[in-house]
Amino acid sequence: MPPAPFAGYGLGLRKPHYADFLETRVDVDFVEVISENFMVDGGKPRQVLRDVRARYPVALHGVSMSIGSADGLDGAYLQQLRALVDEIEPLFVSDHLCWTRIEGFNSHDLLPLPYTHEALDLVCANIDRAQDALGRAMLIENPSTYIDFAPADMTEWQFLDAMARRTGCGLLLDVNNVFVSAINHGFDAIEYLDGVPHDRVRQVHLAGHSQGKELLIDTHDQPVPVGVWDLYAYVLPRLGPVATMIERDDDIPPLGDLLAELAIARCIGDDTIRAAA
Amino acid sequence: MNLLAMQRDLRAWLDREDNHAASRLGATAAPGLRVYQNNYRAQLVACLDETFPHTRDWIGGEAFHAAIVAHIVRVPPSSWTLDAYPRDFPATLAALHPDDPEIAELAWIEQALGEAFVGGDASAIAADRVADVDWDTAVLHFTPTLDQADLTTNACALWAAMEAGDTPPAAELLPVPGAVLVWREGNVSRFRATGREELAALLLARAGTPFAGLCTALVDAYGDEAGVALAGTLLGRWLNDGLICGISER
Lengths: 277, 250
Prior knowledge:
The complex is a heterodimer.
Chain A (H helix, E strand, L loop, with lengths): L8 E4 L5 H6 L6 E5 L9 H10 L4 E4 L13 H14 L4 E4 L2 E4 L2 E7 L5 H18 L4 E3 L14 H12 L2 E5 H11 L3 H7 L5 E6 L3 E2 L4 E2 L8 H14 L3 E4 L8 H22 L1
Chain B lengths: L2 H14 L2 H5 L6 H22 L1 H7 L1 H14 L14 H8 L4 H17 L20 E5 L4 E7 L1 H9 L9 E13 L2 E7 L1 H11 L4 H12 L1 H17 L3 E6 L1
Helix pairs in contact in B: 1-3, 3-5, 4-5, 4-7, 4-8, 5-6, 6-7, 7-8, 10-11
């Protein structure tokens, strides 16, 4: 996979901030949208995306491809996503290492996979099909998980490594998800970040989480916590300059608050670039 | 356990709270399974809550929540898009409240307005473009967002009052059953109530019947003078509402 140009720092585009992005010049290098919100026939959402795309590079981030479905991918979904990709010409097209759908049932949640050779073969076959349908390489994001299917054939980072090398896909490294899953399943987040294939990471997500009754929950309703910033600062020198964004989906604060968080990411990123120079 | 069996078991837990299936997912899986089930239900509840605010206000939060619980059991989500999930909710409400038909009709209006909002784009033709049309061969083409349903109650008035923040009138049956049309004009979803005669004509026209054939059908139904007059009235109304996005010749 050839090195990609550094795409800078971005934010997830959410409804409360549409006017800010369309009426002012927001200090971001790109925005990321949830693909499915715009995989509609027409109307205002699609027009908003066209208008945003005219002003900013856009990354498409999906939640419903279900790359780990044992019964394969949904061809109609791929066609609609391809139409959106062709129109928007996105910076990245990503989805999650998970499954959401099986035999006509769609959970609308990012459900976990066992890290087995069987799952690896299936995920790779599905990624191959998706990349063929989309005409481009995808990025696959590590999920937050709440079930550990141990004993497995490999760790999550070994699975990501094998998957990326076999399919040519890139990785979207969600540092918050590493933090959440490490706490929930008791593995070492540093070992994960050392083990993930650094040369495949094309984008980084930063987000917050909440403490549930028994487990940490990937809620995206909090500022990025110190522990996640620490992991970002640890892994970034290993990745080199990589597109980084703040992902906030609930209890969405004023745009200025998110830009202040993004400034922290820029600061850590600039330090990394300076240290490497 | 192979991958397909695992995914069937997790589905059974989410969908039917099947404890046998859950136990096969591992002795330590229970806390995580509760998180996934909560996420699954919360997504569906939020989706229906967001789509049907006036229906919720009309029947009250408790009855609305009970309807959601019944709907999640009755209709597991099947589409990749949550936008599709509200489609069957009016049918669930109709089954739960057979003596209050305005509830399901109000819900239908709300979900149809939502669907129209993201329906296909099409420009309505201007009324002055019809001057040169050969009406003997003309076929009308309607905006892709147009949808219709039977209407037996004053659900349109209920929706309008609640949307305006006014106290809604009491529910009542219409003197004569009619229909409701929903479509999008520009970026705004619209609806209006109408009679069965317009609904029948609209269904004929949308099925590709040429305008001349539509006139013939209306003349057969209402007589020469009234039938021709009704055809002209409907055409004018459809043009004014922005429902017609093309006219071709057969």
